Amino acid sequence: MGSKLYANPMLIGAMELLKAEPTREHKLLFFEELVKSRFLTPVTITPPPQADEKGRVRITDENQIQVPMLSSDDGRHFFMAFTDKGEMRLWNKKEYQQTFSFGFREYAGMVLREGAKSDGFVINPYSIRLIVDKEMIQAICASQSKK
């Protein structure tokens, strides 16, 4: 996948505005861009899936998928969401990393699932570090359901 697919320039601009001035308008702009964006999400798939004769990789019931989390100093756990490959390499310098493409809905589903141990997700955890916590996810989901 090309890194341009995940560049998310509008989201990055909205995050920078929000960090500089957390106004209501900047929060709304960030939320609008967040729900439209796609992220690189590191995963570990065991056993690794094999490509078929056409080069397509399919996940089956025998594959186990793990999505790693980061822990904060206060014991909270967050999934990682990277806006591009360069940001992901700040976490993992390996040339190859298994990834999925997740959007807000996929993260919301994992975080809000009953029994989930995640407190949210963090966008670009090794640079801008913008945390989207469970309460924020619930508020965005509630506002989306009203539309």
Explain what you see.
This protein is an alpha+beta fold and 147 residues long. The chain has one domain. The protein contains 5 helices and 8 strands. The chain has a 4-stranded mixed beta sheet. α1 runs antiparallel to α2. The mean pLDDT is 90.
Brief digest:
The chain has 147 residues and is of the alpha+beta class. It has 5 helices and 8 strands; from the N terminus they run H-H-E-E-E-E-E-H-E-H-E-E-H.
Shape field = globular
Secondary structure tally, helices: 5
Tell me the series of helices and strands, N- to C-terminal: HHEEEEEHEHEEH
Q: Please state roughly what percent of the residues sit in beta strands, choosing from under 5%, 5-15%, 15-25%, 25-35%, 35-45% or over 45%.
A: 15-25%
Q: How many distinct beta strands?
A: 8
**What is the radius of gyration?**
16 Å
Question: What share of residues is helical?
Answer: 25-40%
**Count of discrete structural domains:** 1
Most strands sheet: 4 strands, mixed
Mean pLDDT: 90
Strand order of the largest sheet: 4-5-7-8
Distance between the termini: 32 Å
Q: What structural category do the secondary elements indicate?
A: alpha+beta
Low-pLDDT runs of 5+ residues are none
